[in-house]
Amino acid sequence: MLNYIWAGLIIFSLVFAMVYDVRDMANDTYRNGDPLPVVLSFPESYDSGTRRQEVTVSLPEGVFNEHYGVDHEGDLEFQGVLLQTTDGAELRFAQGIDLPEPLGTIRSHISRRENDLRGPVIIAGSDSTSAEATVLFNKTRFLKLTAISQAALDFAETAVTLAIGLIGALALWMGLLRIAEKSGILYSLVRFTQPVLKKLFPEIPEDHPAFGMIVLNLTANMLGLGNAATPLGIKAMEELQKLNPTEDTATNSMVMLLALNTASVQIVPPVLLVAIMGLQINQLFFSILIVTSMSATIAVLTAKLFSRFKKHKATDPMRIKAGESEEVK
């Protein structure tokens, strides 16, 4: 079901982007193919033979508003560079300057890396200090579709970066847990925690392997190893299923384990947040501790409360099994 939801969201976003882009093209929002009139001012005298000259680009209020169909107050003035080669002249606005719309959008589309608005320029007439010219920007189309595609690529790169960053931490803790299992520390931990776990999971026999998997699962959660806790939780569920007399109904122990995993009992901040925030995660330590304590308490109380309801008792596989055993006797 989740896959269908994601697919629906992706299709909806693509349709929305296409409608938005078609509307822009129908309204000719970015005046593709129409040169923008500008006035170039030269700090030094204009020289048609000089390859690179510093310029001040002026856009009179009336000309700019009429060209793009906007309502901007006041004349506009920007610093830039005029590049002249044998192939023609190009006007480049200064990098990173504030540009009114739609010039800002045009810049992000045609020069994302350099962050400067640029385009071929034709000088119509000039004197020693100024020149009237027209600049033609590259066509700006399919902005929303491009933005969605770029966002997908950016987040794919982010996902890979985070995954690589998690490998070291996961390998470390999984190795330590494996050592604890082989050295017997895990079994000592089970014996130490069994009195507490027995109250949460009274249906599990003492020294059953399910206790070990539950301890590993909860330990991984408490240490912030969410990815490592998932396979351990699945293994714990498999062990609990061995005690379950039915295949399609969860026992109270399985519900309790799921509730604790959903509450995400944590003492150490999650590895994912550590990878993203670094040392700044320390600022959230007490907040995480308070929230996880509250969520764990509510999860345990809710699971215990629902297990006492008459409706749930009637469908409890362990009670049904116990009742059948009594009838046999």
Overview of the molecule:
This protein has two domains: 33-140, no CATH class; 153-328, no CATH class. A hairpin with a 2-residue loop joins strand 3 and strand 4 (88-93). Helices cover 57% and strands 14% of the residues. The two termini are 46 Å apart. The protein has helices at residues 2-27, 61-68, 103-110, 143-183, 185-200, 209-222, 226-242, 252-263, 271-277, 285-307, 310-314, 317-328; strands at residues 36-41, 52-59, 76-85, 88-93, 118-126, 130-135. The protein is of the alpha+beta class and 329 residues long. The protein contains twelve helices and six strands. It has a six-stranded antiparallel β-barrel.
Can you give me a brief rundown of this structure?
The chain is an alpha+beta fold and 329 residues long. The chain has helices spanning 2-27, 61-68, 103-110, 143-183, 185-200, 209-222, 226-242, 252-263, 271-277, 285-307, 310-314, 317-328; strands at 36-41, 52-59, 76-85, 88-93, 118-126, 130-135.
Question: What keywords describe this structure?
Answer:
disordered C terminus, single chain, 2 domains, 6-stranded antiparallel β-barrel, 12 helices
Q: pLDDT under 50 segments (min length 5)? A: 324-329
Q: Distance between the terminal alpha carbons, to the nearest Å?
A: 46 Å
List the helices and strands in order: HEEHEEHEEHHHHHHHHH
Mean pLDDT: 82
Based on helices, strands and strand pairing, what is the structural class?
alpha+beta
- Strand fraction equals 5-15%
Largest sheet: 6 strands, antiparallel, barrel
Counting H and I runs of at least 4 residues, what is the number of helices? 12
Rg computed from alpha carbons, rounded to a whole number of angstroms = 33 Å
Q: Looking across the biggest beta sheet, what order are the strands in?
A: 1-2-3-4-5-6
Number of domains: 2
